[in-house]
Amino acid sequence: MDKTAFVKKLGLIPHPEGGYFKETFLSDVPYQEQRLYSSILFLLGEGDISHLHILKEDELWYYQDGEDCQIYEIDSQGKLTVTAIGRDSGVFQHLVKKGTIFGSRIHGKTYTLVGCMVSPSFTYEHFHMVGKDELPEMEKEDLMKVLDMVA
Fold first, then answer.
1. What's residue 82's pLDDT?
2. 101 — alpha (psi -120 to 50), left (phi > 0) or beta?
3. CA 63, CA 148: separation in Å to the nearest integer?
4. Which of 11, 59, 42 has its CA nearest to residue 112?
5. How far is the CA of 139 from the CAs of 52, 74, 80, 135, 151, in angstroms?
6. Strand pairing partners for 13?
7. Lateral strand order in the sheet of 69-74
8. Cβ atoms of residues 57 and 93 within 8 Å
9. Residue-wise pLDDT tens digits, 50-93
10. Which of the four pLDDT bands, split at 50, 70 and 90, describes residue 107?
């Protein structure tokens, strides 16, 4: 199946950060002013980028199908870490800690399908797109790897 077929079959819609998504689970258990967790399916195809953003909650990524997904994380000291999840990398889950600047892209040309669980549940009030002026001081080589991921 290709990207277009997955978007249609799964009822995915464009995500504000890039790519396509659909919320699949939202906990019935209240947690403060949110729910205990939420989960989405998230798809990136050729040319799609999940632009750099920050969440106030941890986000656990699960590889589902397609090519590897590369998750780019920038810590507060400007250190870039790239983690590939998928069949080729042999890594099938990855946790992005709250407060981390991160984004993702496909490592290939077709599509990558992942699941993402946020706990407590995702809310747009706790989601922030990162501008270039908000990036910490970084090595030039690392900065060049993420500049196109700034919205």
1. 98
2. beta
3. 23
4. 42
5. 17, 11, 9, 11, 20
6. 21
7. 80-85, 69-74, 101-106, 49-55, 127-129
8. no
9. 999 999 999 999 999 999 999 999 999 999 999 999 999 999 99
10. confident
